[in-house]
Amino acid sequence: MTRRDPFDEIEELLERMGREFEELGGTLDGTAPEVPRLPGARDVDVDVIEDDESITVVADLPGFDADDVDVELRDDALVIAGSREESTDFALAGEGDAEREDAEGADANDGDSETDDDVRYHRRERRLRSVSRRVPIPQRVEADAATASFDAGVLTVTLPKRSPDDDRGHTIDVS
Amino acid sequence: MNTTNPFDEIEQFLGRSPFSGERTWGRDLRTADIDVAEYDDEFVVVADLPGFDRDGIDVRTDDGRLTIAAERDAEREDADRRYLRRERRHESVTRTVELPATVRPEDATATYRHGVLTVAIPLDALDTDEGHRIDVN
């Protein structure tokens, strides 16, 4: 079989630790400042861009279908999740990718077990499992007016900022 | 067969950018994550290239190497548009893979779907070249 690069293993370990930190951070949400994350611990790479009207979150989710992607605005964070079958089989991700649309499910699995025996992996860097990411949103936004699009493995979520007036509660004139 | 050019790696490590933020934990923002698998009759490279157009992706074989290059328009940043986080890979990424000697690049196929590029290159069976066998009567 393939010889594993020891650095891959270390990176994997760090990644796992980072995920646990992040999960912990999620449960403490609101009561503690954001738990620091280990570098490289992220599942999903994101850009967060702010302009006058909105905050835009752009997330890389290569290999996912729009149907596999879940976006939720929870308190002051955007939670992005991409789910797929936990299969780490290369053939499914690689060759199967093109066929998956036609031959979803059982057919694809049959082919995999056959090719499994005589394949040699030179590199395996891609993440083939389900992923998730919690992105803190630093400002109050209009959740109802949020829009999302998904194209070529990239998710774009636009969150219009809440106008400052809405935040201030009711002002009482002093006469 | 399995090795990449060590100088490529050093070059990648040193980087060309003045910003340390260009690299995050062993991850070069100017390359793509790939899987490389060799089957009996096929060599398959799968690359994550989220957010590109088919037209922006260039795949070529040359001198026993496969080179994948992808480019998209740079996203603008100005006074009205600030990045609060910037983790995604660059607008231009390249990746090179050494190919086995038995590949038939002229029969290669490439597909791009959901931000993933799959390149499949057929391999010649090794034993067809083993010379002519003469039966002993």
Automatic annotation (TrEMBL), chain A:
<comment type="similarity">
    <text>Belongs to the small heat shock protein (HSP20) family.</text>
</comment>
<feature type="domain" description="SHSP">
    <location>
        <begin position="37"/>
        <end position="175"/>
    </location>
</feature>
<dbReference type="InterPro" id="IPR008978">
    <property type="entry name" value="HSP20-like_chaperone"/>
</dbReference>
<dbReference type="InterPro" id="IPR031107">
    <property type="entry name" value="Small_HSP"/>
</dbReference>
<dbReference type="InterPro" id="IPR002068">
    <property type="entry name" value="A-crystallin/Hsp20_dom"/>
</dbReference>
<feature type="region of interest" description="Disordered">
    <location>
        <begin position="84"/>
        <end position="125"/>
    </location>
</feature>
<feature type="compositionally biased region" description="Acidic residues">
    <location>
        <begin position="96"/>
        <end position="117"/>
    </location>
</feature>
<protein>
    <submittedName>
        <fullName>HSP20 family protein</fullName>
    </submittedName>
</protein>
<dbReference type="Pfam" id="PF00011">
    <property type="entry name" value="HSP20"/>
</dbReference>
From TrEMBL, chain B:
<dbReference type="InterPro" id="IPR031107">
    <property type="entry name" value="Small_HSP"/>
</dbReference>
<protein>
    <submittedName>
        <fullName>HSP20 family protein</fullName>
    </submittedName>
</protein>
<dbReference type="InterPro" id="IPR002068">
    <property type="entry name" value="A-crystallin/Hsp20_dom"/>
</dbReference>
<dbReference type="InterPro" id="IPR008978">
    <property type="entry name" value="HSP20-like_chaperone"/>
</dbReference>
<feature type="domain" description="SHSP">
    <location>
        <begin position="25"/>
        <end position="137"/>
    </location>
</feature>
<dbReference type="Pfam" id="PF00011">
    <property type="entry name" value="HSP20"/>
</dbReference>
<comment type="similarity">
    <text>Belongs to the small heat shock protein (HSP20) family.</text>
</comment>
